[in-house]
Amino acid sequence: MKRILLILCLILVGKITALTWTVKPDGSGQFSTIQAAIDASSHTDSIRVYPGIYVENIDYSGKNILIYSLEYSTGNPAYRDSTIIDGNRNGSVVKSILATSNCGIYGFTIRNGSGDIDLISQGVTYRRGGGLRLRNAASFTIAYCNIKDNICDNGGGIFLRDAIVYTKGCDVSNNFALLGGGILINTWGRIYFDPIQRSSVYNNIAGGGQDIIAADTRLDMDVYLDMGTVGYHNDYYVVYSKSITSFNGTLLGVDIQRGYLNEIDADLYVAPDGSDLNDGLSPLSPLKCIYRAIQMVQSDSLNPKTVHLAPGDYSSEYEQFYPIGLKSHVKLLGAGIGVTNLVNSRYILSLLGRGVINPEVEGMSLRQDNNSVIHSPINFGQVVNGKLTSIYIDSLESIYSAGITLGSFSYYYSNCVMKDVTIYGNSAVIQTGIFANVVDLDIDGLTIDNCHVTGAEIDFPSSVFYFSANKLRMSNSAFVNNSVNYNDINILSIGFNGEASTRSLKLDNVLVANNHTTGEMPVFIANFNENPAILNNCTFANNSGANFAVKLNGNFIVNNCIFDNDTPAEIMSLGATSQIQFNNNFIRNYPNSTSFAAINNVSFNDVVLSGDPGFCGRNPADPLSYRLGNGSICRDIGIMDTTGLDLPDTDLAGSPRIYGVAVDLGCYEWNYPVGIDDEPSPAAVQMQTFPNPFVEQLSLVFDLKLPGRLNCDFYNVRGQKVRSIADAPYSKGEHMLIWDGCDNSGRRLGSGVYIMRMRVDGKMISTRKIVMTK
């Protein structure tokens, strides 16, 4: 009997000590802020909040309490609209990260959160949980809340990890994030969506997982929604993601009763001066925001769609949100490099493809405008058949990465095709060019110029070009004027994983010139595969920073290449089982400039040139300098029978690959009718170019010493002629020419470095480096 009385007394004491605190914005309650009430509360207490706008960021501080509006006691839903917690973009609006159980929040509008810094990776901070950030919660209930207008990196509306959450009657909409626009559920997290009092999660925007993403939760989950962005399960909006297949957890079912929108089965149009109130169905009624068009367009493998971007700047300062979450079977098509510009001045990424199939991006430039937190302008994760065409990434400076990142997992096939992609002027601590891990690449026309990995004190910086996957084919590409300021890092690093029998590597017409490292060889290729790597007509020149310029470990066939670097020696191989065959190559200081661990497995045919390759120019920073001069010993000396080489039709400059009796060595084919003569003759002309750099137009004022037929041409950094502004007889004396920055078709070219070449009667008289900016 005494024991029963004791238990009853304890229960009564518990009831007496569980208090309800009141919060009123006018000060007539016990507190005027919610956080003050939390600070005063104890476990099992409740906090009743009266209508008003509370501009604050609240923290449960490890207390097992319930916070509720008057909707809790009255059932009137108007109270959730009038009782507002506004985070003022000062972190997560509501957070509970210390261990709790049986907590909850009921009947509020939760808005204007920006997430708390929850992860710092190599100097880059990630904000999580714009509206709510929950962790270490054994049972947390979110009921009848409007969670909207929040923005952060992970979980725009809600982020949870190591937490079990129950939701009912909530509206999660118009939130923005890098991943998980509405909700992101992370490790050991789970949400029980009430199947009767259903929540709605819709019209949220993210690079991946527009509405809900569950990532590596290890727990199964059902999703029951009243409204989603679309009225059916689509992985673009609701997705479960695993980084390792052995992890437990999946979406058991997704049941959505209705959709916020019907995707449009047609191409859509976007313009900087458009409006998201337009239908977007024609250039006359364009949408304004790219993300809105991608959200609205239908993904259809049998009828792929295109989102057309009109000329202009799509700036994050004018309503554009980045990253744009690419969609399967949808092309994002700009009007051209330097014509359509994605300008990201505040977000980590610009374009994100995550687990999508056949996404395409074409015809645009990407700029940062003083965005030092940029992580990668373009990021593809687990993308199948991705395609990047005519892309220009311009002068990004970042505390992390400033190039293109492509990644996947060994169990998930991923690949990407790149054509005419230029990365110019990037500087970053980690990575500036291309990082491809477990993603097969097919590349034509890639240029990485003047990009610098600074290294600093951050661990694990990357090569300017890093590849580790199963298949790589690269042609007509240039890596020039780059540097790595970190030990043990190459400019080019190429390796392989996967089945040795299926791996393949082929490089054609690749220029690697005037790059610098701080101790490691500028070029490293490991190819221990059953299929030998093929290197055709590549030029490795003026690279520096190590004892050797090129390391080749594994199985190779090297044809028609030039090795002429600013290193003590040229080629080495440390692979004891390496097998390398050299056919018709120029190797400076051969044989003293080579070193092979498996010397008995290395062979050279009768054609091994040395001495001076006879490049046409003396400026190592100018890619056109590596063309062959009229007297070059590398002309017409390549393999006579090229049948099995599968050479491209053109060289790096776009000229016919074979001109004359045999293919030349190196990436450029000497072709006199369209070639560049050995050296300019400055005595033949006096010239001024201004302004340089230029934005709108460049003026060339020159004084010819002799009359003749004058040609004035502009080339890009790959040596391709992009514009001719003069081809006519000119008299002796002073003249002026204007270049408007357009190509021969009248299309505006992208910002970057161009080479002006002037000839009179076929004789080179002047060459200038020209910089065009925006």
Topology (elements, then pairings):
Layout: H1 2-17, E1 20-23, H2 34-40, E2 46-49, E3 52-55, E4 58-59, E5 66-69, H3 71-74, H4 78-82, E6 83-86, E7 94-96, E8 103-106, E9 109-111, E10 116-121, E11 124-128, E12 132-143, E13 146-148, E14 151-154, E15 158-168, E16 171-173, E17 176-179, E18 183-185, E19 190-193, E20 199-202, E21 205-208, E22 212-215, E23 221-228, E24 238-241, E25 251-259, E26 268-270, H5 290-296, E27 305-309, E28 312-315, E29 324-325, E30 330-333, E31 340-343, E32 349-354, E33 360-367, E34 376-381, E35 386-394, E36 397-398, E37 404-407, E38 415-424, E39 427-428, E40 434-437, E41 440-449, E42 452-453, E43 465-469, E44 471-480, E45 483-484, E46 492-496, E47 504-513, E48 523-527, E49 533-536, E50 539-541, E51 548-559, E52 562-564, E53 569-573, E54 579-583, E55 585-587, E56 594-596, E57 602-604, E58 608-609, E59 685-690, E60 698-704, E61 708-715, E62 721-730, E63 733-739, E64 752-760, E65 763-772
Parallel strand pairs: 1-2, 2-5, 3-6, 4-7, 5-8, 6-9, 7-12, 8-12, 9-13, 12-15, 13-16, 14-17, 15-18, 15-19, 16-20, 17-21, 18-22, 20-23, 22-24, 23-25, 26-27, 27-30, 28-31, 29-32, 30-33, 31-33, 32-34, 33-35, 34-37, 35-38, 36-39, 37-40, 38-41, 39-42, 40-43, 41-44, 42-45, 43-46, 44-47, 46-48, ...
Antiparallel strand pairs: 10-11, 59-60, 60-63, 61-62, 61-64, 64-65
